[in-house]
Give the backbone structure.
Amino acid sequence: MSVQSPKVTFDILPYGADEPWKLSYLWQHIESIIREAARDYGYSEIRTPIYERTELFCRGVGDASDIVMKEMFTFLDRGERSISLRPEGTASVMRAFLEHKLSQERSVHKFFYIGPMFRYERPQSGRYRQFHQFGVEAIGSGQPAQDAETIDLLWEICRRLGLQGLKLHINSVGDAASRQAYREALQDFLRPHYENLSQDSKTRFEKNPLRILDSKDAGDKKILEGAPSILTSLSPEAKDHFDEVRRLLDRIGIPYEINDRIVRGLDYYTKTVFEITADVLGAQNALGGGGRFDGLIASLEGPDLPAVGFAGGIERVLQAMLAQNAALPPQPAPLLYLLPLGEEARRACFVLATEARRKGVFVEVDLHAKKVQAGLQTASKLNARYCAIIGSEEIAKGLAQLKTLATRQQAEVPLNRLIDFCLEEKV
């Protein structure tokens, strides 16, 4: 029996991780900032199952997408139903939105989520078969301002996390009329080069030629250097929408670059698409991205409601923060380490610790204390601020020997004042 984690996965540990970004308290820090920012922008949390019926992703993500064709973890359950671990968050959110008839609750709906996703990735730097996304979905508004708000929220999360050197890349993949015109123009351009395309791009040529723009194949990239821009095929409505998104980004001071090769990896996008990158991550430099998907809900047999959203990767965000030496919180440490000497002191310290914890003070008790020096070493290793040494003599006097570990200064503190002292010292 193997006692190792499955290939291309990892554990998030409280301590002892082989890389700093795998420490759980850092994940908690990032998640708390995401939740706070989402709340400030009016987004409410939604949690969905980590698996769904496979059909949902085939219809929602696109049966011609790489995700569905190559990357999903799919299996039959005991009822012979095809089930897939969720490879992304949007389809599940839309399913929950429809199933619970949330469209009847209000006109505009804003959700955020944080959780694990699953794709059968080949082993490579920065990609894992279980990875963690945070994302938002805004449903019910087709206004360009909703696109700009969504972009701004991802930008603001990155800013609050202390990330530097951010770049926003934006594009428009247009509406249905725009994409049909561009599809024909792109196929006309690629047809003479068809035999030199990668096998994946040959498959996409008829099914979804726009996805060829997202090819990572070096030969495909060379061919695409002369390809027409989708921006020349935008319908008047799609062009006006994109122009207004850009004006709003200018007004709120977010710099951007227009990148007409961004199409994103999912088939449901319409009009605005975007990515935010950080150059410290090398080839896998996207921290997050998204766009508008006005037809997705209708394709799932729901009302024809516009929507826009994004998803970001927690792994990449953390790695970028560490690479940039962004401000990160220290590992949580006890304010007080209780060092009882003897059974009577152990009982007294247990009661003290319980009372302090119930008042919100981080306290640890050495339940196996035998020697003062060993206990002090343990307290120092835990980065405790104070260590209270309590034995039978201290109990008789009603005092604790309180040592400040950073300075090694020691003072006597009345036992009945110890918790009040901790509350006063709590930051």
The first strand starts at residue 44 and ends at 45.
